[in-house]
Amino acid sequence: MESDSAMVAFPLLTTPIESNYRACTIPYRFPSDNPRKATPTEIAWIDLFRNSIPSFKKRAESDTTVVDAPTKAEKFAQRYADILDDIKKDPESHGGPPDCILLCRLREQVLRELGFRDIFKKVKDEENTKAISLFPEVVHLNDDIEDGGKRLENLVRGIFAGNIFDLGSAQLAEVFSRDGMSFLASCQNLVPRPWVIDDFDTFKAKWNKKSWKKAVIFVDNSGADVILGILPFARELLKRGTQVVLAANDLPSINDVTYPELIEIISKLKDESGKLIGVDTSNLLIANSGNDLPVIDLTRVSQELAYLASDADLVILEGMGRGIETNLYAQFKCDSLKIGMVKHPEVAQFLGGRLYDCVFKYNEVLG
């Protein structure tokens, strides 16, 4: 965990940050709600986190880096369930009232206190190896599309398809452990447009007319998500002359890709002349975001990322945790894109969309 003094606010947030930014999209409660009584929304979200306990426990049990992992995994399940019960009885216990950041943080704290550092490491490594082998095929399929607008749409569909690999969703964790996930099939099976938030046509019109000098992309999951979804899109930006900063987590959390893992992935994908399938990568930078959760509070990022991002003119937040649950309404001093798949029924209900619907929210800053 980085010390508080090392963390700073993301420099592109609209100021004053205090009145313009809150790292929680869905209001769990309102000022008029009784502070000692859990709201129906709080209860629904506490239940959602409770439903994820069995899949986390299963991953923890098989963590070979931890002595006596099965016993400690049982302790994790019990302790985290007890914390959730406490919050249900008294929303202000454990640093509440709860939001998705607090519920994620408490889960990570319990795991780390018991010695679990990265319970999804094995599955991340397996998925990264698989996705690396598919990368050339996915890139060539994109490169073969001559029409720029159609190629962009294909790249965006790839981001959504990759984003399905999310073991923080109980249903998806179950599907995944049963029969894995096919990236190309997922591309074909996305819900039809218009998506629940669909600014794609506006973005496409800008893409055809405008090029950004520097884009910061907050990446999400390992495997297909970052390798087959984000990297082909980042490569396309590089081809257009945009400098790209990929911001990845400092510490492991669920199956999110970490900063050291992302450096390793990219070194495996580059050829001997440092190119990404024919594209120069001297303008591709990897940054440690300073984050340690599957969601992100942009008032707390690393100084390194803040420095690299200060002159960016496009910010992209990808994935449900970062792009939808915590930052859907975040306002920036530059153009921004929030892109992710809706993988919790509670989020679908809040947005008025379908489960596995897509969010593509583009905001242009004029002037």
UniProtKB/TrEMBL annotation:
Keyword Acyltransferase in annotation: no
Organism of this sequence: Gossypium stocksii
Keywords assigned: Hydrolase, Manganese, Metal-binding, Nickel
Record bears the keyword Protein biosynthesis: no
Cofactor: Mn(2+); Ni(2+)
Entries under InterPro entries matching the protein: ARMT-1-like_metal-bd_sf (IPR036075), ARMT1-like_metal-bd (IPR002791), At2g17340 (IPR016949), At2g17340_3_helix_bundle (IPR035073), Type_II_PanK (IPR004567)
GO biological process, one term: coenzyme A biosynthetic process
One GO CC annotation: nucleus
GO molecular function (one): metal ion binding
Residue span, Damage-control phosphatase ARMT1-like metal-binding domain: 50-359
The protein, known as: Damage-control phosphatase ARMT1-like metal-binding domain-containing protein
One family name in Pfam for this protein: ARMT1-like_dom
Signal peptide stretch: none
